[in-house]
Here is the input.
Amino acid sequence: MFATLYEYWLFFELLRIVQKIFDIPSKGILNLIKESNDDLSLQLKQGKVCSLDGSYTKGNRKLRGYF
Here is the structure.
């Protein structure tokens, strides 16, 4: 149970960091979350791909990221 909770936490922390750096909107992320029967748990859909793209600009250099 704690391993799963840690994996969820790590996923969302990494996602938050990547979103912040690459200025990625959150709209596509909600497609990864699956409702549960008891309304108290969170499940990530397995086998689903969520492709995100964003950009990061530092000075006159622009980096485009696809995740």
Remarks:
- The longest helix spans residues 2-22.
- The longest strand covers residues 53-58.
- Helices lie at 2-22.
